[in-house]
Write a structure and sequence with these properties.
heterodimer, A: mainly alpha, B: mainly alpha, two-stranded antiparallel ribbon
Chain lengths: 358, 316
Amino acid sequence: MNNRIVVSLLAVVFGLLAGAVLMAVTGHDPITGYSYLFEGGLKNPERIGNTLATATPLIFSGLSVAFAFRTGLFNIGVAGQLLFGGFCASAVGLSLDLPKAILLILMLIAGFVGGALWAVVPGFLKAKFNVHEVVSSIMMNWIAYWTIYYAVPAYLKGEFLETESKPLPESASLKVSFLTDMFDGSYINLGLFVAVIAVIIVAFIINKTTFGYELKAVGNNRHAAEYAGIAVNRSIILSMAISGGIAGIGGVALYAGNASNIQIGILPSQGFDGIAVALLGANSPVGVLLSALFFGLLYSGRGFMNAMTEIPPEIADSIIAIIIYFAATSILIERLIRWFIRRKANAKSASEHEGKVK
Amino acid sequence: MWTTIVQIAPYAIVFTIPLLITALGGLFSERSGVVNIGLEGLMIMGAFAGAFTTFKLQALYPNNPYMIWVGLLAALLAGALFSLLHAFASINLSADQVISGTAINMIAGAITIFLARNMTGSGNIRISNFAPYNIRGFSDIPIIGPLIFSKTYDTTWLVLAIVAISSFVLYKTPFGLRLRACGEHPHAAEAAGVNVKRMRYIGVMISGAFSGLGGAIIIVTYAGEFTGSVAGLGFLALASLIFGQWKPLGVLAATLFFGIASTVANVSQVIPSLAVFPPIILKIFPYVVTLIALIVFSKSSRAPKAVGEPYDSGKR
């Protein structure tokens, strides 16, 4: 476990170094770039609030990917699940007139159900027909994309634009005045608290329940789990459903918290970033929380950096992508660490040896 | 009806070609035993390299039609070089090939826009692309003339030639046999004296080169502009590969299906005989059919047996 933390931290360091090289190669000063990047995410309460808000959907998508990973499933369909979960929640929020607390709970449930529905399809296909979940969930992403593309104008059309849904009323928004005031008008919202609760619940399920143990057993060795009497197919379907449900709640945080409506024609990039978050966080719930906060910082600071320098904002995406490559090739880093330790040990024994000779 | 088909056919073919060459590249990689989910990223990299090179050369030598070909060559090389990242991770470091491929997709998507923005500000690179033409003599042949030989591009014929050559290489040469052996029984292949790692490197690099070419073909034919994405075509190519059961002709049929289905969906609103279908049905049709096809083929899947498994020569 300790080893994983070192690998993740080194991946971050290598990613940031590669980002510095990219900036330098394109004729910018990396030190100025990074100082504006971090200032942009942390300078004042509003920016800190925005960093936390940017991280919120990433916590959900990272948690979603990590949960599926634990069962040996690669949920690359988080983008579609976010989108469809957010759509279901928006439909509830726009059509029901209820007190805020009840409405928000209903919307979270709708988001969970929507996301779960979207993820159950690849889960079912995997369990029953052994269809690889990566390809089927990518297909589900595009089906979600086009469904929203036509469903939003047809059912939730905004007043002026064909390309976005009607804005949610105040009672259906995760934004609350005390948080907004506390962070000087930032778009931070209740989604963050829901995310932290989700992290705790997922950590509990994975580490402390029989159900979580069964899921992990299926992930580690499907055949051994089957032999031990675990209902493998049921585990796969349930794991995908929960993973998709978490993503769906992330959609609520994204479209009813950070934003107040759904725009059509976009697959939310947060879905794919979830893979990065999960991988950097070593698929552990707390790791996911920390790496989502770090990526949130990069994403929320890049606008300020772009305003103060000539560096394009995509530097943040590039850094994240490179971090993922290093996290994926962790063996390289582990070899490096081993080599380093061995060299140190050799040097030590060599110097001891020398001492004896003298 | 006939006029509709004649109207659609050239567009369907133009749309099919980048998918076809990319899926064919994926075929080489997977047949050698390496899953390549990074086809999308490799296409983006090729599209960027092709657009960048062509853009710079066209500024230097305006009106020279051969500059686009130089751009395509650059895309081929860029794709092959970039795929080395995936090859190194999955062959030398035994990394999870799906994750490494995802990293390839993310790196390509981010870095190309980053570089393009440094050049043009908006991140889009506009070039003057090929113009479609009718092949003289052939386009007058009844039925197939207007369908296949009209409004065509040279790249279409280049890709079809590559498909034919690839089929031959895969099934009729020692190299093809060795490559396929590495994807089925790498240990047996090694025992027979085949260098498994080298074969897999070659497979991944071919997939990189072909995907890069595919990405650039999008730019030099129907798009004319690099915008930082290829709209999921790489993933569609991956689906075509499975749909086509890892065989060149199967891939040709699968990509043609996607080409026709996507074109029909795109033009349905302007062609009266198609406007009766709700557009959402036409748009999700290819993806739903893919899901169904995956189910149908699941029992008789011809996936290479060792695909996705890191090769460990000590393992028995």
